[in-house]
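Consider the following input, taken from an annotated entry for Nitrate reductase (Kitasatospora cheerisanensis KCTC 2395).
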Amino acid sequence: MDPSVAPLGARNFRDAGGLPAAAWRADQTEQTLVPTHCCFCGVQCGMYLRVDGHGKVFGVEPRNHDINRMRLCPKGINAYQQVNHPDRLTAPLLRRDRNQPFREVSWEEALDHTVEQINRIQQEHGRDAFGMLGGASLFSEKTYLVGKFARVALKTRHVDYNGRLCMVSAAGANKLAFGIDRAANPFADILQTDCLLIAGANVGECFPVLTQYVWGARDRGATLIVVDPRETAVARTADIHVALKSGTDSAFFNAVLHVIVEEGLTDEAFLAANTTGWAEVKAAVKAYPPSRAAEICGIPAEQVVEVARAFGRAERAMGWHARGIEHHTQGVENCLTVINLCTATGNLGRPGAGYGTLTGQGNGQGGREHGQKSDLLPGGRSINDPAHRRQIAAIWGIDESELPPAGTSMMEMVWQMQRQEIRGLIGVCNNPFVSLPNYAVVKDGYDKLEFHAQFDFFLSETAANAHVVFPVTVWAEDEGVMANAEARVVKHNKAQEPPEGVRTDTWVMCEIARRLGVGSKFAFEGSRDVFDELRRASAGTVIDYYGITYDRLEQTGGLAWPCPSLEHPGTPRLFEDGRSYHPDGKIHLQVVEWHPPADPYSDEYPMTLTTGRTVAHFLSGNQTRRLGGLVEQTPRPWVEVHPSHGFRNGEPVRVVTRRGSEVLPALVTEAIRPDHVFVPYHWPYPVAANELTIDALDPRSKIPEYKVCAVRIERAGAIDPVPAPPVPPGREAYPEAQVSRTDPLPPTAPQGRGTAERG
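Applying the prediction step yields:
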């Protein structure tokens, strides 16, 4: 067989002796490859968008960026299909009453009505009666603008963002311990570690390309420890899988540190030179012997000892975690116990030795740095600090007294909507009807708003409930930066012009500001102007972007902050000199006591429901539930149940909590604890996992407790149908994304060891 004409895959190319791509030619002329990054998770894989001779994005190619080295996950491969998708919003939608249908209107009418409602509500009920919610999938320029717009144009204290549902527990722990909010090490350090601990992170499905680092560490002999109630894909490859009961993480990590102390595996010299609070932490963990952890966590006591010895004896060890330990009423404290473990063993500030947090959204790191969080100003400044307030007020050209005080968190704002303390809202890049817990409460809060405007490029479930919807650009139609899970700032490039009738989020906010009489404070032509102000606003802070420019990002492929000058190389690894970012330079270790979850178990609700993501979908699914290939791969939610409950694969299972119930097909698997069930959360009511979850919050971070609530399961009749994504008036749902959605069975792809076969 001639290798130059053999079909791809017809035989082993090494046997053929030819180069499999040697004779390939482009199938279209006048193509352009635009280098950029994926719009989805916090790995921020490099990619090229393929642009045809008419200036339209029509495909994607992986890019040999040092983050991903030619790898893309299913979401990244399909992301380009959003850009020219038939469901795109291309004209503003307006209705003056929710009982009316939407109608397409001009930008003038939509903007005039929005400004009229902002003025009316604030004149009648005060400035804080209007709120704003941003998103962590926005470019950093836009997140900066959300915070400034809320405080300078709306003049309200009520601004927050959907990263409140993602990274704030890790952020709170990092700031308490280190005085800085970011991962301490780059991904590349994973390749040099001798022991890698991954807690509450389903890397294989949520951060698929990151598995190259995990497996690279394994290939050079590192011990892999995974802490997760489910045997995820990466857990199946682990040397030690700790299938602990959800909501018991701090008890487990306290017990691991207990053993490390007892066996003399702490780095006392490092602790004496670089920490405060060690004596108190050391005394506290005495109360957590392995026997107590075994009782609380539902694991063998011997496993606690095994983990402690593997981590404590390693020359270089690392701890990484994600939402699995953060989505709890004790989320901040869970993260602190991992920090305590890394610090007590001296595993900070070295290649292969450190600590990191995995961001879920593309700009989960950058999205919380520059002011859209309720208590922060640009550069991570505190809105409660008079000096910080004066610094930002001077940059924004206002008096310090004009800056509102700190607001409340995203879920607390919903409760305020219920009480009609907040009567108007602008939402940008978020979908709370799917992403927030306790759907009935969320729906009630939004229904009580007198006016609600939403920015989006698809009509999300939340936008479909609004009064005004502004059609805005997708990531490939604008330029800007994001900071990935390493705190590496990367540049996204514009690949095509937006459709006629579509505007950038920046343009819309600036235009509303102009109509509110503060246009001089928002005289931005685009992202570059905003980024220049962001750089100046961050200068001199811990989160210093001043030395980062678009040109430098293009040349380097990304720079980790802090980067205080144009000559500075960036800071990929923290604490190399042993100093933290607290004024005393010390790492402030914190005592943590375990407490049970908020939702109590009972005879009626004896089991644990936990929720999370699946590889084909992203967050609320507003983007991925419209892409045919991803819908075909994972058409609907399911409930993972252990075989001991007697269900067959695909059988209807009613999942019941104190907040609601729904009927889902069973995915029967030995990869989950018998006392747990798991439901992925990417779909809306009536199959929304967040119809079932509890809206209890961590008292420090205000993150909801998504990962554990009390539940029962029972046999049921018909499986609840999956609704089609909302579409603008006069259009039908994209047919290619609808066929698989009606499939009553769970996905064919195995979700874990022992998964039952279909058919």
